[in-house]
Write a structure and sequence with these properties.
The chain is mainly α. It is about 55% helix and about 0% strand.
Length: about 220
Amino acid sequence: MLDKQTSQRILLDIIKLYPRKHKRRDAFYVLISTVLSQRTKDANTERASNALFRKFPTAYELSKAKVDEVEKLIKSAGMYRQKAKRVIQIAQEIVGRYGGRVPDTLENLVKLKGVGRKTANIVLAVSFGIPAIAVDVHVHRIANRMGIVKTKKPEETEVALAEILPKKYWTRLNGAMVNFGQKICAPRNPMCSVCIFREVCSYGQRNASGDSGSRDARS
């Protein structure tokens, strides 16, 4: 496992070199699109989200939508039957509990059915600018693979990263790590040969003899 100073330097470099720009920061859009993004590619999420919000741009409108109509709009996101029911229910809860406004606290966000800590932290960071580290499968995998943390659960990774990275950078970490994971540190066949962190990365050092890293997605 890497020392704190090295780990912090790596995280700051990832944030600087692989920034993610969010086209929309509206809290309801970010919340729903994050729910739609589960187990699908960014392009599919964007297509589904745009189609859905063209028809139902607010929580009030989505809360009254019919499930079959939403299913057709978000089909490109995959798992559309489950996701359609979920986003409608979230919209109904936002209208019923919070007057149509997405709550801006972790405590209230995770009370929404189907909204976990990761999704809540993305909304807090992207939409409200509140310091929060959203740990999804990409962040959890990369941080452990590189030796920045040694954790078994995303919740543990969140706590560990918060101890390493200054709070002012928390909101930018998830997007940057996702970008880095898509471009370089992929689940399978990570591009270690072109990665600037290879010399300090625990995984890169173990696989220094290979040209493109290991095919083991579990690392």
